[in-house]
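Exercise: predict the fold of this chain.
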Amino acid sequence: MVRVRNVLVFPGGTEIGLEIRNCLADRKEVQLFSAAAPDSNHAPFAYRFHDVVPPLGDPEWFDALCEVIQHREIDYVFAAHEDVLLELGRRRDELGAVLVASAQETLEIARSKTATYAALQGVVRTPALLDAGDPLLAFPVFVKPDRGAGSRDARVVDSVEDLVRAVSVDEQMIVSENLPGEECTVDCLSDRVRGLVYSGPRRRVRTRSGISMDSYNVQDPELDEMARAIDKTLHPRGAWFFQARRAITGEWCLLEVGARLGGTMALSRARGANLAWLSILEAEGSEFDVLLGEYDVRIDRALLNRFSTGVRYSTVYVDLDDTLILGDRVNIPVVRFLFQAINAGKRIVLITRHDGDPEETLRRFRLSGVPDEVVHLDRHSSKADVIADADAIFIDDSFGERADVAREAGIPTFDVSMLEALIDDRA
């Protein structure tokens, strides 16, 4: 019998949390849960089991989270935000579940750029830190928060006036040399016994809020060597990452180390390294290998729509021509929805005026057995007249057909573009 682990992602609605969800949603060994603060976030749309807890900093947040862990019988917790990771790390012995994370010393170092640079001084190339008050300071320089996340408040500064404004944002702003070259993130995985077992450099082409929106894998032995050096010094466990940028000399210079899963680790997953799942195996002390595909991958990301509607139904009436079949191909969005309905125990009824034999057409497109019933009408019959179930929906490309069914049968009607609102892919 397969052992199922109950895994909590907290907070579940961050980009990091949603990528952890994507790593684990379809694994037979995992049942996913989410928790997050009550403010608007994507988690309730992405997880079937979601709990609301007070925000980090509220006096009750930790006790509320522990109650969720106990009630849901959670085995493992992933922290999907830097500050959450640090706080949970400090109280991991009180959680009642295993925090999938590195040792606390590693978490503390990685949360501060100055601490990271100090720990890795002489191990890898780190940026020169500059004195903002130095009258001989040569511009441009780079300014960023010591404990910032993503690219927030980080920017190139070209003058004393801009520097004064930039450092006034946060008293912990650091000033460093400007690194003008290309930037890469390296997703990594370390094992407590073997050390570094995977490093996957990827080029950051376009970013938003520190997350790579356009990225592709690259081969670079220098970055792999940096990964090994960082691993031997900081001793991370499970998934982690670092970012590096080329200096004016052309050599790679460290920007930061993250002791957590990277927000665009989907690129590694697409090549065979499911870093969230492998991190669970590492936490268990289980043996594992990484099998990478010998191919290149590029990822480009955009907003994803998920919906919550008040539509309830037990039967799906669906058209054939230009709906289930579009020209000479199966209409994938319709088939996806129909199989979702089948999984939920809904009844599927095909209503069509197809010129040929609809059963033969279904066989030709390998869709035999999808409908529970096929109703073949002549050209003069109304589809609304054969709809017998009031607890139903109707899908058809024709506005006229939908309007007739809505008027006569009084049930919700949809064209193919609307079906996205009915997709429920919560993990």
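Check your answer against the key: The two ends are 21 Å apart (CA to CA).
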